[in-house]
Structures are given as structure tokens and as C-alpha cells.
Amino acid sequence: MNELDEVDLAAVRREYTKGGLRRKDLTTDPISLFERWLKQACEARLSDPTAMCVATVDETGQPYQRIVLLKHFDEKGLVFYTNLGSRKAQHLEHNNKISLHFPWYQLERQVHFTGVAERLSPIEVLKYFHSRPKDSQIAAWASQQSSRISARGILEGKFLELKQKFQNGEVPLPSFWGGYRVVFNSVEFWQGGAHRLHDRFLYQREGDAWVIDRLAP
Fold first, then answer.
1. What DSSP letter does each residue of 31-53 carry, written as one string?
2. Per UniProt, where does FMN bind (predicted)?
3. What is d(CA 71, CA 187) in angstroms, rounded to the nearest whole number?
């Protein structure tokens, strides 16, 4: 018997008591409220407050999820970067519908975006790529993301080889590296509440306006 066998998983629970979310707390557009919550997550010194779960679907309808860092946001959408040969990028080539989830559970909050992913322009990608630490730029060249490798040593050896190659010069932008802007059409804000009476508000785009509905927990 391992330690997990001794834990009653069904009994693991706690009360959510950090406060509620009321309609008076909402903004007319979701990005303003998201900005406020993200700032509060940063001020609370949460680990990786910009980390989001990115969900895509393959050609068979199988969903996949992974954690990616948010790099920019505004009313146009949320931005992240990736290897264009990665599994998520391949999924988005066939189905650009996407879901983003921010699990700020230390603040008893969640935010969920749904929308479509659009490729960023080469200029946007180049600007961000050269703002990264040089070792991160080199790592983008070293890793063919999602491809099978037989050992970690192969990856490390390739990184050291490229580090030597680019030690005295600028690292060029790989043709296989890019980014996406998630143009969102719905956003849900979730705030934990006592007795499982959580507060949920859903923003849905209708033309140039946002319609807001309270959802039952």
C-alpha cells in the first residue's frame, strides 16, 4: 500500500472564503477585469501567474492540454509563442478553436477564455524573439518540439553546439518558430464561495458589445 492508498480522495475538500464576486465588481468588457485579476495575482506573488492551460483538439477530436506562458494581452486577444512544428501548432492548423484557462486557485479564482487562434505576423514574432534571453533563443533552435528523442543528452549536446556557433553573434529567428493571438469570444470569471456557492460570470461577445450572465455554480 502506498501513501496515496491511505488518503480518502473523496474527502479532500476545503471551504472557499476569500470573498465573492458580485455584478457591481464587473467591468463592461472582460479584458479590463482580467487585467485587474492578473495584476492582483502578480501582487500576491503567485508562482507563474501568467501560466495558462492551453487546450487544443486533434483531427480525431481528442483534446490535449499543456501549460504555456501568456506573453501579451489587450482587447485584440491573448498572445503566446511556440514552435510551429509542435503538437499544439499542428492541431491549430486543422482546427483553430482554442481554450485558455488561468488556474489561480491560491486566490480561489479561475478565468476561462474560448476563441480562435490566429498566427502572429513575422514582425511581431521577430520583435519578441530578440527580447528573449540568448540561451532561450538558442534553445528554440535546439529543440524540435514534440518530436521523439532517444535521450536528453542529444538535446543538451545540440544546445551546446549551437551555443558555440552563436556565441559571438545574433541568433537568427528560426523559420519554424512563431506565435498566436487568441481572439476570444467568451470569458468566464470564477470566484470560490462558501458552501460551494461559487460566483461565476460569463461574458459573451455579441457584435461589438459584451453580454454578461451569472451562471449557477
1. HHHHHHHHHHHHHTT-SSTTEEE
2. 66-71, 81-82, 87-88, 110, 145-146, 190, 200
3. 18
Return binding residues for FMN: 66-71, 81-82, 87-88, 110, 145-146, 190, 200
Residue numbers belonging to the annotated binding site for substrate: 13-16, 71, 128, 132, 136, 196-198
* Whether the Cβ atoms of residue 121 and residue 173 lie closer than 8 Å to each other: no
196 catalytically annotated: yes
State the pTM of this model. Answer: 0.88
Spatial contact of 63 and 55, defined as CB atoms under 8 Å apart: yes
pLDDT tens string 65-90: 999 999 999 999 999 999 999 999 99
Q: What does the block give as the cell for 12?
A: 479532500
- The answer for residues whose C-beta is within 8 angstroms of residue 215's C-beta and 6 or more apart is 188, 200, 201, 202
CATH topology of domain 15-129+176-215: Pnp Oxidase; Chain A (2.30.110)
